[in-house]
Amino acid sequence: MADVEATLDACIKCNICTSYCPPAQVTGAFPGPKYAGPQAQRFRSPREPSPDASVDYCNGCRVCNLVCPAGVKIAELNARARASLFRDRGGVPLRERLLGRAELLGRLARPVAPVANLLLHNAASRWAAEVLLGIDRRAPLPRFANRTFREWFSRRGGRAREAAGARFTTGRRKVAYFHGCAANYYEPHVGRAALAVLERNGVEVIVPEQVCCGLPMLSNGDFDPARACFQTNLRHLAPVVEAGYDIVGTSTSCTLTLKAEARELLGDDSEAARLVGEHTYDVCEYLMAMHEAGELDTGFEPLELRVAYHPPCQLNAHRIGHPATELMAIIPGLEVEESGAACCGIAGTYGLKKEKYAVGMAVGRPLFDFVKDSGATVAACDSETCRWQITHATGVRCLHPIELLARAYGLADGQA
Amino acid sequence: MRRISADVLVIGGGATGTGVARDAAMRGLWTVLLERRDLNHGTTGRNHGLLHSGGRYAVKDPVSARECIEENRILRRIMPHCIEDTGGLFVVTSSDDPAYGDRFKAACDACGIPCEEITPAGALRREPRLDPRLRRAFSVPDGAADPFVATLATAESARAHGARIYRYHEVTRVVLRGGRVSGVVARDLVNDEEVLVEAAITVNAAGAWAGRIAALAGCEVKIVPAKGVMVALNHRLVNTVVNRCKPPGDGDILVPVGQVCVIGTTSYEVPDPENYGIEAWEVALLLDEGEKLVPGFKAARALRAWAGVRPLYSGEATAGGATREVSRTFTLLDHETRDGVAGLLTITGGKWTTFRQMAQVTVDAVCQKLGVARPCRTHLEPLPGSERRDYHRVGAPLRAVEGGRQAELVCECELVTRDQVETAIDAGAVTLDDVRRSTRLGMGPCQAGFCGYRAAGLLHERRQPAVQEANLALRDFLQERWKGLLPVLWGRQLRQARLDELIYLGIMNAERLDTGGRKSPLTDFYLQQAESSAHGVEQPLTGGGGQERHG
Q1: How far apart are CA B345 and CA B202, in angstroms?
Q2: Which of A14, A26, B245, B514 is most buried as measured by Cβ atoms within 10 A of its Cβ?
Q3: What integer pLDDT is reported at residue B517 of this predicted model?
Q4: Do B393 and A14 touch (CB under 8 A)?
């Protein structure tokens, strides 16, 4: 695995990253990826306090990594610099620690979800959250589901229930589903859709023990608990992979974290991390691979829909193309239009922060315009926080592509 | 002919010369300094950036070692802003003799150099990239120094005490009157005129060129010009000065200085302090030695190579270029007692670390000759710029441009702002390379790929010279950068050079810039060096070869 810091040597100052960087284009607060990444890194020393705070305005979208012709791991350099910055300034701020802990919030709120939602989504508490915590009162926050995905799954009756009408029942493919925090606490319907689609295609699906992938902590500069999460996940997932399962997730951020991000940011070159990383797939990536192997049931019912699809930054960072676009295109009647926009601006929890909310909204402007102008009645995106941001900014409902696939299979469960 | 008169004339604008000028001016002497190029243009601007603790010389050259530790303490006090308190390690690697460590420790103790053995594990905690097979490690108070800033601060202090400093004044003749040096004739290279400088005492502080100056007065001073090659890597692999704990040899010191780390040096006698190349084997040797300290060293990106010429003085000629055998202490020659030529002193040898002491000893002698009894105070009075009484920090330039000033960066790699460049231009920079020496412009990874043309534009905007002159300034600067790139053109730095080439040759047609046949005071110098070190390499720009200090 490449040493993140050593990749700064590859920078030839071409500034391509700077000209593509979404935040740098809308705010002077972020001096740009070349500046904050490989350039500033030469001025940082483990023996000195962090000299630059502007790196915190990197939103971690990784567009820079994608366009860099030289292979500099710019976003990772920035994420590490942010962690050092917080460490040097007396620890990770309360807000960042809170935003990094989606899972803890979910666990606490779940038993009292209606009350929690009421508490979270009213003007007074949003005002308080803005004043006390610096979370912008306008920013899109999700609602807790009344029942978690795991609760639903265990009640349904554990593993391997063969879906009605499954055409492939050989049991050749075995998947361990990584629901992550979003599908478990906020959007269990996404998890159910994934399960339905996979099982419809004869895949054996289990739901292994798991915790938060750690990305919210990593992108909020809170590395120590992220490391603990990653280790816990490796403990749960490595044996599952050894038993012949592939890890498949519906959140492109979680799967990216398990694939590469955590390993690189935390410098974990263990065998378990490699094993899990190499066997993790985004759900659409996995289904597309099945399709290419001739294993995907393409008996979709027509869906007369025009969908404005945004491939999120986190998906692009996988470097697997846009499998959701290709899958949706198979659905008869479905018309997919890709956004071509760089970033929605939310970048996980970035756009929730008071001083960054406007930056996030400005970054997402081209995407929002695209969605509004497309005439689509529904938008689609693989990443949860992006979906919330798109709906927040455009008022257009935003789905995970897997939900459209499930619907086209006639598997929509209707239990929100 | 323009005439200037003084009590003391100092020839040479490096560390020693400016040090002498400052000391003399502080003792109330009417002082003039002449430098043939820019301050720091010679060896001072081409060194390793090492503030010696003396550890390196403790075993074989205890006189030098004692001088070093004494001055180390003084410089930390008077110019902390020019020093980064990195500390130093002497490391016994798996290819070195562990028993040498005991001799080393004993010698440091004898010279009064604080030296403490630390465990290999402790050394690795401090510097995780070191080869984990290291056997022993000793901690000493080495540091990283910025001789550029130090010389400029010394010159500023000298001026504040009344000294007059003339750059681009090349001594062409020494005026002898009745067996006594009464001054010199110099050529003002910028205004192209002759200047007569008369002084009661002339101090020859011309470094590797001291032999030539002495010869103009009819005195023979055998200076062994010992070339030392250094290679800077793109970023710091260590944050402590790391020395091999073994008898001094080639490539056994790695200094983290500014944003780079520098491996050096070699030590070979060259016939001419101005014309020498950097050989491929020298670069290869340095990288091989670096690899012994830090595994992976050779795979890191090399930024630039350069060489400085030490002014070693041995009294007698050395045999076969064995310049490591010459003491690194300094020598003050009184040509009155030595050669019967009064009014001329030569100060030579020594090291950057000991420049202040060299100046003190010299000015003591000057005062004695002039019958002035004022004590040296250079070790007591801090230099301008040191007001914060704090060491330089790696992150300082980045901290300085945080909060909006990034927008006006001219050199992005080294974080040089437009203000800094304009100040340097307005202060009388003759070439863009002069701007570089006072600001670090163009010394980062891209080697002026992006800032060279910006600086040329600013030069034109501030001075409104003929376009051809601005073109010439740009061309000379590119030439200067190119010669340090040439020895390290492989891997990622080659990729950078290719991009720079596309910018300057592909977009700007720099090769055919109209210079109207003009020459700067340095054009010949660049072209000459280009020829001496081309080594038959195809030269995409306008030739190259040579040497510069970190970046």
Answers
A1: 6
A2: B245
A3: 86
A4: no
For residue B235, the SS3 value is coil
In this structure, the answer to whether residues A265 and A201 fall within a common structural domain is: yes
Q: What is the ipTM of this complex?
A: 0.92
Distance from CA of A59 to the nearest CA of B (A): 18
pLDDT(A411) > 80 = yes
What are the structure tokens assigned to A89, written together? 């300034």
Q: State both tokens at B98.
A: 């562990």
Q: Residue B538's pLDDT is what?
A: 37
Neighbours of A392 (CB within 10 A): 19
Topology adopted by domain B2-43+148-223+327-370: FAD/NAD(P)-binding domain (3.50.50)
Intervals of chain B under pLDDT 50: 316-321, 534-551
User: Would an 8 Å CB–CB cutoff place B449 in contact with chain A?
Assistant: yes
3-state SS record for B272-289: CCCCCCCCHHHHHHHHHH
Nearest chain A CA: its distance from B496 CA (Å)? 5
* CATH 3.50.50.60-classified regions of chain B: 2-43+148-223+327-370
CATH architecture of B50-145+228-305: 2-Layer Sandwich (3.30)
Residue type, B139: S
The answer on A153 and A207 residing in a single domain is yes
pLDDT in tens, B350-378: 999 999 999 999 999 999 999 999 999 99
| Nearest in space to B210 (alpha carbons), one of B329, B434, B42, B25 | B42
DSSP characters over B398-425? HHHHTTTGGGGEEETTTTEEHHHHHHHH
Burial, A400: exposed, middle or buried (Cβ in 10 Å; 0-12, 13-18, 19+)? Answer: buried
A83 shares its domain with A106: no
